[in-house]
Amino acid sequence: MSAIILDGSIVHYEALGRGRPIIFLHGWVGSWRYWINAMQIASTSFRAYAIDLFGFGDSQQDIQRYSLDKQANLLKRFLEEMGIGKVALVGHNLGALVAFSYVQQWHHTVDRVMAINCPLDYTAISTRMRTAAMPELTDWLGTRSPEATSALSDAAKADMQAITASMAGLHAQTNMFASIRDLGVPSLFVYSLNDPAISIPPQEKTDSFPNHMHQINLENTGHFPMIDNPSQFNRLLTDFLALDSGASPRELQLKEEWKRRVR
Q1: Which of 50, 83, 127, 170 is 20 to 30 A removed from 29 (C-alpha atoms)?
Q2: pLDDT of residue 262
Q3: Which domains does the chain have, with CATH numbers?
């Protein structure tokens, strides 16, 4: 286990591979652990890091650090301490919101973002997701496969206040995505067609995406596409990371295997 002290608080992380940096940020249910397969794939060309956000996994529990801005500052301080420059960010719901909170403030350090099952506003989060506790959330959103059980084994460590505080932060924000639209950071929004917790944005929202933003909907996956269908998810991840720096993720439409999944 690797850990770093940031402003007096313990932050747990794991790292694999060598090359350009990529950071994986987990969601409301789980920890760094469900990124292991994706990290192994990415590590063939990248230095892949996965962080436990404050209140999750083996990182510090501190109610004063659970806001989206504080979690984004965790990411900033981690990058500074590790000497990481421009970075690719891959985030899953909460992790995607933290990534975009980071982009709002330090977009010049972000090469691209993949946002998985990211709620564009508070109403996109189901009532059950907002109100249930562990282990109900794990039982509801995960499968009973040995792979899923292992990948989500840290979920019970989460401080529920970290979940509610970050959701409240999204509820309070009215302009997060409006404020990042004009920053030019290539962003791929990935949604699972069978996710019961996060609703897919309505057509009018995605139709208004600027050219550097794009959405792909994955078939045969639920809340955790990286666990439910890792081969499909990892193909998309690899293709996205292979795009030239600054290229629009809309270029993924040129790949036949994604055409039928593009909205």
Answers
A1: 83
A2: 47
A3: 2-259 (3.40.50.1820)
